[in-house]
Amino acid sequence: MIAKIFNSLKGLIKGVFMYIANEKRYEKMKYNRVGNSGLKLPAVSLGLWHNFGDTDKYSTMEEMCFTAFDNGITHFDLANNYGPKAGSAEKNFGRILKEHFKPYRDEMIISTKAGYDMWAGPYGDGGSRKYLIASLNQSLERMGLDYVDIFYHHRMDPETPLEETMCALDQIVKSGKALYAGLSNYDGPTLEKATAILNELHTPFIINQNSYNILNRTIENNGLKSTAAKLGKGIICFSPLAQGLLTDRYLKDIPEDSRVKKDGRFLKEKNVEDNRDVLIKLNEIAAARNQTLAEMALAWILKDSDITSVLIGASRPAQILDNIKALENTSFSKEELDAIDKLTLNK
């Protein structure tokens, strides 16, 4: 009762009452082991790629973090360039950590990344030792942290020797600035080479982060999914709902307040129109399962043990609660899987 009273007041009296987490937050969330490591992640994690930048409402960011943690989402994923502007998601999350989550830091898994363009000049992009170490130092300062739990190289960089990038990750972990290393947007053959280097260095590399959803099967085709399973590495998937395409939002038209209309960088009107017939049929399969299209899309990713977690994005707390419902049914019949594949494998 006291926790409920405090939480009802936290939005009214800033700085007086600290957030108090739901005591039952671990009861319903499922936690999966990350590959062969000792670490577990929630089946649903919160990504801060969108909606945590300087153009977004801070109180909504707070409420989304509260809602996530209160429902067992312990993993919060960032990158140096998340915003807009670049760096602002880390800065805003750092403020939320300082104001509300300090007592819970040891119950949280916080990750960040570097690999894409972050600052001007030759040292603000890629996979060099110079860039990765400098970027993580900046990220830690923005978030007010001594370490992150997972630090990723964000993309393959053909201009930097793989050994240099992997040695930088090794130094970062052994310096105590990250507990584990991860790789993002790699393919199967490069993952295998990187793993060989990191194994030789005894670096705790445990996880891959890649885009994966019903409509995007890239990691099935480039060897990443099968190679990660063979090597005992986890996979966490971003864009599991294809930037909102795999929801009921676009089944009839494109709402004026949708991401397509407001920010067409990642999801465009043509994507919606080209996929609408498929989305309608997928929605029919979901309805027969007593799920929404979004719930089925998330459940489909989590149907086998190769995937550790899905990274959801949200613009409001209710979306987080809706997405967690996917965990209620992650089993699929052969007929359902065949019907989904028939609709989507040739897209």
For the structure shown, list the relevant keywords.
single chain; 347 residues; alpha/beta; eight-stranded parallel barrel; two-stranded antiparallel ribbon; 13 helices; 10 strands; globular
Short description:
The chain is α/β, with parallel strands linked by helices. It contains 13 helices and ten strands.
Radius of gyration: 20 Å
Percent helix: 40-55%
Helical run tally = 13
Proportion of residues in extended strands: 5-15%
> Could you list the spans in which at least 5 consecutive residues all have pLDDT below 50?
none
The outline comes out as globular
H-E order: HEEEHEHEHEHEHEHHEHHHEHH
Averaged pLDDT: 92
Would you mind describing this structure in some detail?
The chain is an alpha/beta fold. It is about 40% helix and about 15% strand. The protein contains 13 helices and 10 strands. It has helices at about 1-10, 60-70, 90-100, 130-145, 160-175, 190-200, 220, 225-230, 260, 270-290, 295-300, 315-325, 335-345, and strands at about 30-35, 40, 45, 75, 110-115, 150-155, 180-185, 205-210, 235-240, 310. Strands 3-4-5-6-7-8-9-10 form an 8-stranded parallel barrel, surrounded by 5 helices. Strands 1-2 form a two-stranded antiparallel sheet. Strand 3 (about 45), helix 2 and strand 4 form a beta-alpha-beta unit. The longest helix has 20 residues, at about 270-290. It is globular. The protein starts with a helix and ends with a helix.
